[in-house]
Each structure stands twice: as structure tokens, then as C-alpha cells.
Amino acid sequence: MEKGLSGLRGRDFELSDVFYFSKKGLEAIVEDEVTQRFSSEELVSWNLLTRTNVNFQYISLRLTMVWVLGVIVRYCVLLPLRVTLAFIGISLLVLGTTLVGQLPDSSLKAGLSELVHLTCCRICVRAVSGTIHYHNKQYRPQKGGICVANHTSPIDVLILTTDGCYAMVGQVHGGLMGIIQRAIVKACPHVWFERSEMKDRHLVTKRLREHIADKKKLPILIFPEGKTVRQGTAYQAVVDNNKHQKSYNPQFGDAFWNSSKYNMVSYLLRIMTSWAIVCDVWYMPPMTREEGEDAVQFANRVKSAIAVQGGLTELSWDGGLKRAKVKDTYKEEQQKNYSKMIVGNGAL
Hints:
By secondary structure, this protein is an alpha/beta fold. The protein has helices spanning 2-5, 17-30, 61-100, 107-126, 155-161, 175-184, 198-213, 228-237, 264-272, 295-310, 328-344, and strands at 130-135, 146-149, 167-171, 191-193, 220-222, 240-248, 277-288.
């Protein structure tokens, strides 16, 4: 801000300062940095999917014929097979976890729950032609800990669970996702909550502390980078954790889910009519909360490490901005920065 105002103002307050804020406001209306973070990545070369080339124009007869052939293969051959596999995987998951959930808590129940989760998630990954490459497997999380990962869509859980089971922390959903959530929580101690409920925040903190105190329980998987409810509670409950970083190759299919634009079924249809879902997963060394470091500082340090590993852009704002209005705290922060400039220049 100070750099942007340097050309418009002297040392004291000037009415012309309003032009800087007006300019920033107009730039945000044209293209703000929040909206574009929740849009599909622009590809350098076309992958024969119209969803990645909205402004597609006729180029040549040969390319058009190749595209038509691709549509036939994707919709008439791959889609029916994938829908069948997805139906089998989801049905077995709901049925299996419901049956396992009827057993009393024991090592047998835990073993059967892991078997059902692993088997069904691997079937579902086949339903999207998932090709996953795991790196640094020596850092795979152990039981009784917390793992964090960058978040793209609900299939992140499938991608990670094909290599090991987790207890999950997440937002309560409706529809198909809600059915799955209510079924799997019967067999495994997942934690579902309403982000808007303050009492749920305290419950999540309590459940996390109890979970990590038992070294026989599955590691907890959370996606905290930008959701303040999960970020705060998670890092107040844990001293050290493992990290995952996932990177999808958009050339074969777009795995990003814009939940404010597409429901779960529409999203699944989009990825099932893509060529494939190609993903790299990096397991990272565990990080320990340092002496004198609070929960937010620890969370930001973990987020920075994940961003560096994946070559991601690190941003400070809350991912909830894609659905909600800008928080007053963000506005007040800009006002305080401007006030400090004025006070520092002796104008007040």
C-alpha cells in the first residue's frame, strides 16, 4: 500500500489518496485475486476437452474428427464403465461400513474398517482412471497423529486413502456426500462438523485431542489451508504432524471442484468424462511446533512448506471468501495499515 501511494501523496494526508483506493477497487471488480484462485487452470495446449477451451473455434477438419472420436470414446466407452465401477465402489462402501459399524469396538472392527475403506476407495479411483504416483513413502504417517494436505476436491480423500487409511475431519454435506459421510462414520471415528456452529468448533478440538492421545487409532487427515475453523482447532490440538502435497496434471482432466457452481453428481460426471485423473503425492517429513510458537504461526509454517513443495502460490486470506463476504477483520487491517502510514508521517 505504501509503495502504491508513494506516487500520489507527499508526507501528509491528501485528498488524492482516494484515487489509489478507487483504482484498487476497480481492479478487483475486473479481476480480483480471490475468484481466479477458484477457476480451472488455463492450459497451454488443448487436451480435446471443450470444458478447457470455452472459446473453441473451428481449426481444421482433421482436428475436429479427432475431437469427435474422443467424445465417442469418452462418453460411449469410458463413461459406462466408470459409472459402473463408481456405483459398485460407493455401494460397497456404504453397505460395508454400515455392517462393520454394527460390531463392538475391537481390533477386528478396526481391521475390517480399514479393509473396506481401502478396497472401496481403490475401486472408486479406478472409476476415474486415476493414475497416482507416491513419493517419499518413508514419511508415510503413523497411527495416532495428524496429517495435513492441500485441498482440491473430495476425491483428494480417495487419492490418499488408496495408500493408507485415515480418520477424516470435514464439513457436513448433504446429498450423495451426506449419505457416504453418515455411513463411514459408523465404522471409523471421523469428525464431521458445521463450520458456522461455534459449539462444533469446541467439539472438534476435544475430539482431536482424544483421538491423537490414542496411538492405536488411525492418523487424522485434515485440509486446513484457508479454512479457519479447521486450522485453529487442529493446531491447538497437536504438537507435530505429517504433511502431504498433491499435484494434479490438468492435461488429462481437471480435478478441481467449484462447489458453488457444480453439485457433487455434476462434478463426478465431469471427471468421469475426462481422459484420466493423474496425480503426484509427496509425503513430507513431520514438523514440530516450536517453543513460543502459537497455533496460527505453526499452521502458517506448515502451509508454507506444502506450498513450496507443490510450487503453489501462498495466500493469506481465507478460502471461505469464495462464498462469503469479505470479513471486517480484513477491512480493518487495511485501514490500520493506512492509519499507521499517516501517523508515521506526523499528519495526526
